[in-house]
Amino acid sequence: METDRKTFQWSHTTPKSNNHKDVSYPTSDIGSSYDTDISFSVGVYDGLTQSTLTNKKDFIDENTPAVFYNMSIVTTFSYGGKTYTHTTDYTYDEPRRWTSPSATKVTKEESGNTNKYVVNTSQTYNDYGSITSAVDVLGVTTTYTYDATSHLLVDVSKPISVTQTQYTEYVRDAVHGNVTTIRVREGNVTGAILQETITENFDAFGNTLQTRVKKDAANYVTFQTEYKTTAPYSGAYPTKQTSRSQMQMVLLQRSLNSTTTTH
Asked: pTM, whole model, 2 decimals?
């Protein structure tokens, strides 16, 4: 068993320990075998809750690194004379050796109560490890589409009701693949634009100097951000930001034109 603790001592007082945790290895540990599959667990007790993490090692061969999976986390604690247990079980796409779970099951139990609270979520992945679909706790499936060449995210489609779908598209620059426009549309790629954010005017450090956010059908709110390129900031932090609506910009331009004509 190992102990993780932080000890503090104030003047004229005895030392006090905070954040004390006992770590144990009930069955085995990660280094107990080399050329075989094993399951091992780690126990963590912080004085209030006991957590047990069950893990799995998948040995492939001598030339391929082993793959490790966290199969479950069980946490128990007591309060008001009852014991509460929270269990999270993970399922993986082991043939492809993905270490991100393809399915997650959360179970919450209370001693003396036969009813259990169970929640399931799941994800599917493409060959590049990107999520192509995800099912949330309500059973709603969100789908993700990627560019066939760059494999970067192109759009996300999520049902928000029986008859409505929120479609989000990502427009990128052709050179670096940076997102320059995010549009939220109604239904699909040809649907009405509900939200739009455009980033433009990048400096040499890649910072966005101007962002336009759609206000209504005809107007945008423009945010301009300044970065001080000299020391000590060296272009790493924004030093000033101003905002102005498209209508204000039109009125300002008219005022400038009027002043120019007068003189």
From this structure: 0.78
